[in-house]
Amino acid sequence: MSGRLTLRNVEVEGVGGLDVRLDGGRIAEIGRRLGGGGPELDGAGGALISGLIDHHVHLLALAAQADSVALDGVRDAADLAWRIGAAAAGRSPGAWLRATGYHEGVAGVLGAADLDRLAPRHALRVQHRTGALWMLNSLALGQVLGTEAPPACVELDAVGTPTGRIWRGDDWLCGRIAAAPPPLAPIGHAFAACGVTGLADASVTTDAEAAALLAAAHQAGDLPQRLMLMSAGELTAQLGMTVGPVKVLLDEHDLPDLDGLIGRIAMARRWGRRVAVHCVTAVELAVSLAAFETAGAEPGDRIEHGGVIPPAAIGALKALGLTVVTQPGFVFERGDRYLAEVAADEQDSLYRIASLIRAGVPVAASSDAPYSSPDPWPAIRAATARRTRGGGTIGTWEGVAAAQALSLWLGGFADPGGPSRRVTAGAPADLCLLAGPFAEALADPDAERVAATLIGGEVVFERA
Ligand SMILES: [Zn+2]
Question: Which of 39, 299, 361, 404 has the lowest CB atom count within 10 Å?
Fold first, then answer.
């Protein structure tokens, strides 16, 4: 009985007035006036498309963010103080207080003393928008630092006192803060409401414990999406998920030597896995391309972000057959900062799409949530218009037509930049029903147009 449902009057690949019969988690039949008998869902003429896959997210970080203070829209130091103060007022003294999305444009890079003034009676930790830096106040430092020498991620001043800044120390920090795992149902529901049926988690921190947490949430229906997990180390697939590429995180503050990166690619091959390298800057990309040239690239190897891709690197990406997994949403959400802070000659190379596709480089899209909004629809708009929140534009020639922008979310887990998964008999019933014809939805991409979302033939979201 699982997944038996007939969708009435939907548009499939441009053809309207069709019925789609689902059975056993798959599309059984598409045609006109199909026989019924089981449960039905009226599509009201809306387009039925494959469910979207967000090809690069950080699920546990996103879930944790749902509970914390969001600093993304903070204007200045006074606004920051108000928001932290308001959040602290709602919690008992001594409790942890977590804030995310901070940018030093607000009040500079913060140290323990700055944060003590903001929250003198709570253990405050503030995450930088990039996710690379945590800033802790004295109470928080006191809770995470032991009597032993601190690890390298803990920044020290000239006399050896911790500054409060912890660089790329998520693993260590999480191990030090005893916290209940964040609930995953809110983000599972939020993704479903946007038509997202698949999630590729790109966290280097994913280990057996994190995978078990996600698998449990998936089996409980809290996180109904199909999951693909990347990881830095070895990982065994659990029920309801696949294991993806080995994720390699480069850091321009501490670039790995070329040999080290080549070694990590070789290690991934021994595990039978592809490789996904985090490349935001031109330097990170250059090191990665050099490593792939020596170690050899395989179809399915990925460049995550491709934040800056100089013109000369496009040919190398194509020659190596690498897929670029980009975040069009950054153009909208961070574009105004890029226009103010990125050198003019580098602005032309930011978050490319059209020039890569023209050159034959496979491109897929993602949110990198929580580092941008998990809603793909504003990102589809940004991939088309290349408009920033403030009304500026970034590389308008990198914009693609809306249907092509949507297709960046429609490749499969194994081939994210490849052909779109199709709504066709035999395909898994991972589907997004839109509240109107395809052309109408794409003229104004918005999650409000998602009428229903199905995963394996089960309705996981239906708009009231
Ligand atoms: Zn990421």
Answer: 39
Q: How far is the CA of 61 from the centre of ligand 1 (A)?
A: 10
Ligand 1 geometric centre to CA of 140 (Å): 25
C-alpha distances in Å from residue 75, one per residue of 67, 106, 128, 440: 21, 6, 15, 36
Tokens read off for 161: 């006192």
Note whether 38 and 5 are within 8 A (CB): yes
Location of structure tokens 């930049």? 417
17 Cα to the center of ligand 1, angstroms: 41
pLDDT digits (tens, 9 = 90+) for 404-434: 999 999 999 999 999 999 999 999 999 999 9
Q: Are strands 96-102 and 123-128 parallel, antiparallel or unpaired?
A: parallel
Cβ-based neighbour number of residue 418 at 10 Å: 16
Taking a C-beta distance cutoff of 8 angstroms, is the pair 42, 54 a contact? no
Yes or no: say if 165 and 135 are a contact pair by the CB < 8 Å rule.
yes
Asked if 330 contacts 309 with a C-beta cutoff of 8 angstroms, the reply is no
* pLDDT at position 44 over 70: yes
Query: Which pairing describes strands 154-156 and 162-167: parallel, antiparallel, or unpaired?
Result: antiparallel
Question: Domains of the chain, with CATH numbers?
Answer: 1-51+421-464 (2.30.40.10), 52-60+183-420 (3.20.20.140), 68-176 (3.10.310.70)
CA of 22 from ligand 1 middle (Å) equals 35
pLDDT of 1 reads 44
Q: Which tokens go with 64?
A: 């944790």
Give backbone dihedrals phi and psi of 322, rounded to 5 degrees, phi first. -80, 145
